[in-house]
Design goal:
By secondary structure, the protein is mainly alpha-helical. The chain is built from 18 helices and no strands.
């Protein structure tokens, strides 16, 4: 069978011809937009599908029958068509490879909660040019940069940060909608729902999560996360029994998908929901399971598990002293790494304890 090392618009268009499909049928066959297929055929070798779509095209070619594969191979031998690029590349941002490498470094920085260095790298690219001046590859990288900048603000978590994160995510959503990359757009919608929850709009957040649990643009793992986060919003809103049911279903999905870290996170959230429902025995059992199975390698993860553990221990007078010690430790880490949303959560836990 003929294979394609790197798909461009030319090869993608030739595959449509080999399959003898209309543009509309071909787009539906691949699960992409009609506009995307039209762009491939208009710009030929001057445009390249995104990595996710490259894999989809590989699969479509592999599943084609022998006759269609033979037609595709014959069409390939006719030579490439000359096309002009869809945009004039920006001279200010010409090194896409360096930009891509910096985005990978930013992801690592955010995992480590090194916000200052991440912000420096993001400013290097977001401040260098206007989106309208970028070619498609540059616009894609610009959209990724906006998302990571939103993630940075969301992780820091002041109310002002959350407002800024919402704006950055919305701008990124516009970029990926223009580029017709539905998976990225849906992931941003999930991030926007998280921001809504963090801002305290719990009923609206739960509704948005519910809508995304069945969204085929998202991966099965992301849809399971959306289901778990429905439970989180419900538990924060005091609807703990319902939250427990939803969270258990999400935990089962994570187990089926072999996602141990997400499964451990679900145990942590179930622990808090059982605490809210007044069942400390189950709360302690779930938090022990989460602590035994989670990796908790980042400062944020350590603060989250310690805060949850302390919240449960503080509920029982017999373990209140231990709970205070663990909460103090979580507060120290959150302060050290600038995790302001977590500091607000810790303050809420302390206030709830003082009021009992």
């Amino acid at each position: 069978m003929v294979s394609v090392r790197r798909w461009t618009g030319r090869e993608a268009g030739l595959l449509r011809q080999a399959l003898r499909m209309s543009v509309r049928t071909y787009a539906a066959h691949l699960g992409v937009g009609i506009r995307t297929v039209s762009k491939w055929e208009k710009h030929g070798t001057a445009t390249c599908p995104w990595p996710d779509t490259q894999a989809i095209l590989d699969t479509a070619l592999a599943r084609a029958d022998a006759t269609a594969q033979a037609r595709f191979e014959q069409l390939l031998t006719q030579g490439p068509l000359r096309r002009q690029p869809s945009r004039t590349p920006s001279p200010a941002i010409a090194d896409h490879e360096t930009w891509t490498e910096d985005l990978e470094r930013i992801v690592v920085c955010l995992d480590r909660q090194d916000f200052a260095f991440a912000a420096t790298l993001l400013e290097r690219w977001l401040g260098r040019g206007q989106p309208r001046d970028l070619d498609d590859r540059g616009l894609y990288l610009y959209g990724r940069s906006l998302v990571l900048s939103g993630d940075l603000r969301r992780l820091q978590g002041t109310l002002q940060d959350l407002m800024t994160a919402k704006r950055l995510y919305s701008d990124a959503h516009d970029v990926f909608t223009e580029l017709d990359i539905p998976r990225r757009a849906a992931q941003i919608e999930l991030s926007l729902a998280v921001v809504t929850e963090m801002a305290g709009r719990l009923a609206l957040a739960a509704t948005r999560y519910q809508q995304l649990t069945g969204d085929e643009r998202l991966s099965t793992t992301d849809r399971a996360r959306a289901q778990l986060w429905i439970g989180t919003a419900l538990a924060k809103d005091g609807r703990n029994e319902f939250a427990i049911q939803v969270m258990r279903q999400a935990a089962e999905r994570f187990e089926e998908l072999d996602e141990p870290e997400d499964w451990a996170t679900a145990q942590q959230k179930l622990a808090l929901a059982h605490r809210g429902a007044g069942d400390l025995t189950r709360a302690l059992a779930y938090i022990d399971t989460a602590r035994s199975n989670g990796r908790f390698e980042t400062p944020l993860q350590r603060v989250q598990i310690d805060t949850a553990h302390a919240h449960i221990l503080l509920t029982d007078p017999a373990t209140r002293s231990e709970g205070h010690a663990i909460l103090d430790r979580a507060s120290d880490i959150a302060t050290q790494y600038g995790l302001k949303h977590q500091l607000r959560s810790i303050k809420t836990v302390r206030n709830s304890q003082e009021s009992t």
